[in-house]
Design brief:
This protein is mainly α. It has 6 helices and 2 strands. The radius of gyration is 29 Å and the shape is extended.
Length: about 210
C-alpha cells in the first residue's frame, strides 16, 4: 500500500484518539477545579485535627453577655463569678480543684433535690497512646457532675478495649471532646491533664 493511502486510512483513527485525549483532559481539569475533586483528595494538614482552637492570647475575651441587652447589667459578670475559684495554668477556672476544695457544690438535679449523685472512685488507664504517656480517666473527678447515663452507653461502652478514639475525634467534639471541646477544659494545649501516666521506662514528660 502506498504511504499516502496508508496515511489517509490512519487519519480517522488519529482524530479519534486526539478527541478522546481532549475529552479526558477536560474531565480531569473540571474535577481538579471543583471542590472535592482531585485537588482536594489529599488531606490538608489543617483538616487532620478539625478546626483547632485559637492559640492562647492575652487579649480580652469576647463578652459572654450581649451588651446591647439592657438586662445584661443585671447578670453577674463571669470575672466576678470566677474570682473565687482556683485558676488553672491558663487562668481559666479549675473546676476539679474547685470541687475538691468545696468552692462549688454541683446539684444532683437542675432544680435541686433529686437522687444523690453516685460516687465512683475508679481510674481507667488507656494505653493506646503511641509514644505519648498513657491517659488516666478518673471517674472520681467526673461522677459528681454526671450520672453514669450521661456517658454510658451513648458515648462510651463500659468495656475495656471497646472504645477506639483518637485526638482528631476529640478535637472535632466527639468522644471526650463532647465536653472537652466545649464546656470543660480544652483538650488542646493541656496534654498533661489527660496524658498523665508515663509508660514503663519513660521519663516524665511534664
Amino acid at each position: 500500500m502506498e504511504p499516502r493511502a496508508r496515511d489517509r486510512m490512519q487519519q480517522p483513527a488519529r482524530a479519534a484518539i486526539a478527541a478522546l485525549a481532549i475529552g479526558i483532559a477536560c474531565v480531569l481539569g473540571s474535577a481538579v477545579a471543583q471542590p472535592g475533586g482531585a485537588a482536594d483528595a489529599e488531606p490538608r494538614a489543617a483538616d487532620l485535627f478539625g478546626a483547632a482552637p485559637e492559640p492562647p492570647t492575652d487579649d480580652a475575651p469576647a463578652p459572654v453577655h450581649d451588651p446591647a441587652n439592657p438586662d445584661a447589667r443585671r447578670l453577674q459578670q463571669p470575672q466576678e463569678a470566677f474570682s473565687a475559684l482556683p485558676p488553672d495554668k491558663r487562668g481559666k477556672p479549675d473546676w476539679s480543684q474547685a470541687l475538691r476544695l468545696g468552692a462549688i457544690e454541683p446539684r444532683a438535679a437542675v432544680a435541686g433535690g433529686g437522687e444523690p449523685v453516685q460516687a465512683l472512685d475508679l481510674d481507667i488507664v488507656m494505653k493506646n497512646t503511641a509514644q505519648m504517656p498513657y491517659v488516666r480517666f478518673p471517674h472520681a473527678a467526673h461522677a459528681p457532675w454526671l450520672t453514669c447515663g450521661n456517658c454510658h452507653d451513648g458515648l462510651f461502652v463500659p468495656k475495656a478495649g471497646a472504645n477506639a478514639m483518637n485526638m482528631a475525634q476529640i478535637l472535632r467534639g466527639q468522644a471526650c471532646g463532647v465536653c472537652h471541646a466545649t464546656v470543660a477544659f480544652s483538650a488542646m494545649y493541656t496534654c498533661e491533664r489527660c496524658h498523665s501516666v508515663p509508660q514503663p521506662g519513660q521519663k516524665p514528660w511534664w
